[in-house]
Amino acid sequence: ERSTSTFDFASYHTIDEIYSWMDTLVADHPDLVSKLQIGQSYENRSLYVLKFSTGGSNRSAIWLDTGIHSREWITQATGAWTANKIAEEYGQDPSVTAILDGMDIFLEIIANPDGFAYTHSSNRMWRKTRSINAGSHCVGVDPNRNWDAGFGGSGSSSNPCSETYRGPYAHSEREVKAIVDFILGHGNVKSVISIHSYSQMLLYPYGYKTAPAPDHQELNEVAKKAVSDLAAVYGTKYTYGSIVDTIYLADGTTIDWTYDNGVKYSFTFELRDTGCYGFILPSTQIIPTATETWAALLDIMVHVLEHPY
Amino acid sequence: EQLFVGDQVLRITASNEEQIALLRALDEQTELQVDFWRHPGSPGHPADLRVPFPSLQAVKTLLESKGISYSIMIEDLQKLLDEEKKAMAKSRRT
Fold first, then answer.
1. Do A280 and B35 touch (CB under 8 A)?
2. Pick from A35, A249, B59, B77: most CB atoms within 10 A?
3. What is the pLDDT of residues A16-29, one digit of tens each?
């Protein structure tokens, strides 16, 4: 008999193993966790989202996604650990309990399933989707340049062979469109947290323009506290700020689109970097990374709960 | 399955905008098949670049000739991937 207690969170897993474990999580917490299918990938894999809800209809919600860049395995692994943590802490931890008594949480652990499967079977370095590009021998679109927020600008590439290829048009990727449709259809998503790796950053809009976001000051304060609490766990230092100020001009990113579509608390993480491995982080790093990230996630989620809009 | 034997990941620190522009231009040279893991941002911030084994000499020569400092973050990428695979297999057996 399987149970969530036999799943090894300290190891990397294939998509089949993670999808199978998701069913176990749902079975172990039937009153809290359910699994939704929000669409299908280019190669017809299911796009699954875990819904954590204590009831109510169309409650305000927090969206989390991990692994939109498939090769950043530490993110999917952190997603699985986080899902389990949310389920285990409800009724135990006062913050998690308060959040889930007032809001729903949606978590998409494998946001780019085709790419993820491809990293396991054929090319561990694969970052993009697996859609075929007409007129090019190069495959895939960068799903974090495909959103309709400054789409097509110089902070992304028009070359299908580039790792930052934006795609033929905004939301051309099924994996992106599914999230767009879900968030717009839901209509009450108050926070989006998109998790990547690596380089230890907590970022907020904008990436496609240098103008500060209208909520810049508040987002900056939230980020400051979150990275401070993250650092308190193992001393891991994060930088924070807007995408454009902290990294570079980046067009068509997830959180710019969510922010422009009314989701005030839009953040993106770049998880742990030991300086030795890039995104090939050894699996021994999964639990420490997820544990410290949890502290920051909880800060953001509590802030969202306490600042309704 | 694509292998990455001898590929290295270089951590490169550009000291000015000119060097950053040069790094960005590397991305456009499709024959080198380099892959930025971390894109060049601003001077003083590291960029990480995976360089396939056949392009190593050309890339390192270019960096050195332009005075761009770098260190080797990953000596042989495939070795790391083999260890990762071994760890996964061990976990699955357990």
1. no
2. B77
3. 999 999 999 999 99
